Amino acid sequence: MKILIVGYGSIGKRHISNLLKIGKLKIIILTKRKKDDFLKKNNCSVFSKIEDCLKEYPDAAVICNETSMHVKIAAKLAKNNIHIFIEKPLSNSLVEINQLKKIVKSKRIITHVGCALRFHPILKKTKEIIEKKSIGKIKFLHAENGSYLPDWHPNEDYKKSYAVRSDLGGGVILTCIHELDYLIWLFGRIDTVIAINRRIGELGIKVDDFSTSILEFSNKTIGEMHLDFFQISKSRFCKIVSEKGTLEVNFEENQLRFYNNKNRKMETIMRVKGFNKNDMYLDEMKYFLKCIKYNKKSFNDINFGAEVLKTALLIEKSSIRNRKLTNK
Fold first, then answer.
1. Mean pLDDT, to the nearest integer, of 254-278?
2. Backbone phi and psi for residue 230, each to the nearest 5 degrees, phi listed first
3. What is the average pLDDT score of the chain?
4. Is 214:194 a contact under the CB 8 Å cutoff?
5. Most buried one in 4, 96, 154, 258, CB count within 10 A?
6. Residue 208: which of 165, 161, 155 has the closest Cα?
7. Torsion angle of alpha carbons 28, 30, 34, 37, nearest 10°?
8. Largest Cα–Cα distance in the chain?
9. Coil, strand, or helix at residue 236?
């Protein structure tokens, strides 16, 4: 199988490394960067124009360039019968997404939007618990992701990253869309939002680095979501309060705990020792290739990705208009 990688940034390199681990795959790369030792060592073909990449007849592509270019590139690849994996978020705009959906449907293209957190063992277990309704009716939830942007890629200048450029799809809402993605995956569609997004950190950037929002799901569950770029002491968790107790999903400690209201005791449901972050990305790529092999629809195809993006953009709009908005 031939795989095209669009973009050769940090996530592109991760996907290439993982694909090389999976099996005998021919790797083609679309980038304007020069062919480095890693690419030479692994015999990767490098092109600066998409037309040259298409002449190699790739079977699938992994799109991990700037967010604002995702849909345009995906449409061109889908027209050429190439299955597509698009890194989150799907785009920074809803423009041309319906057209992409039409192409994908007519060409019967397998699509997947990359949200590796869904492949974290404790989140998968959380999904299982919620679906079994073993903790009773959920009353409300709080999800948080706070981290320090300069620590993301210490060897790079964060002020030059796409995350701080609104024209490329940056800003805290779209860059940290993992939280919104898994909340919709766990609890269903969000009907209404009210949010405050601001630039309140001291990072010297021109996009929002803070967001807090109240989300009302179709099943009437109420959620709170907090995102920021400036917490040096990282915080990433989801607390789910239900009839029978409180489920605590802690991504920093890689553990899942439940406070039982009946006996008033905290129980550890799962703790992943020696957790390797890359395992999520590796499992996700294996899943995508399996979907292609068996012609199976992904559980995070572009239709789901478009719903998440639509909600993210609604959160941004709610903050700008300073009022509650309905997801139509």
1. 97
2. -125, 5
3. 96
4. yes
5. 4
6. 165
7. -30
8. 65
9. strand
